[in-house]
Design a protein that fits this description.
- By secondary structure, this protein is mainly alpha-helical.
- It has 10 helices and 3 strands.
- The chain has helices at about 15-35, 50-75, 85-90, 95-100, 110-135, 135-140, 145-175, 180-185, 190-195, 200-205, and strands spanning about 5-10, 190, 215.
- The protein has a 3-stranded antiparallel beta sheet with strand order 2-1-3.
- α1 runs antiparallel to α2 (about 50-75) and α2 (about 50-75) packs across α5.
- The longest helix has about 30 residues, at about 145-175.
- It is elongated.
Amino acid sequence: MIRSRTVIVRYTTSQRVNHWINAICFTLMVLSGLSMFHPIMFWLSNLFGGGQWTRAVHPWIGCVLMVSYIGMIVQFWRANLWHSEDNTWMKSVAAVVEDDEERIPPVGHNNAGQKLVFWAMILLIPTLFLTGLVIWEVYFGEATPIPVQRAAVLIHSTAAFLAIIIWIVHVYAGIWVRHSMRAMTQGYVTPGWAWRHHRKWLRELAADPNEKTAIRKRP
């Protein structure tokens, strides 16, 4: 197969590094959180050195996750603003699943599915962080009454469940759409990939002189 010598920068180095910090922290939060959620999953605490270490490290990882996601908001909020074509994309979701390119409308840098993941996490991660502070016994245990802590645990668990489901969908979509992972590991996509999956974005790059630096030759 002939590989394209022209590539398009989709994500900068700083964006990719922050994304993977976020992904690693979220994965660690899921593993440590599940180990404390039910005794049947307590064995996961061995990954962190035991139950006490898991309880100690879990909230601190959450703090790093929150800071990292604030960085992602700064980096990606513009690309995730909702536009009219996103409504059309949502109506064509069956064609997306069937990979029927003729029925899928052209989209910009991110499609509606990616945007929904982004905005859902903007709601869920701060919810996890704030409720986590309420039930962080070492520092805030005496600051809140027991009924508030119980409510926080329920909200925290519900938000974590929803975030895990969204995360699974996000990872599956990244693997399912061929060469999407390369964009977040190496930072570039080919013109063919961009034309197939984000045609409007490719046209915007070609039309905007300020974006010409995004299109370059493969080293």
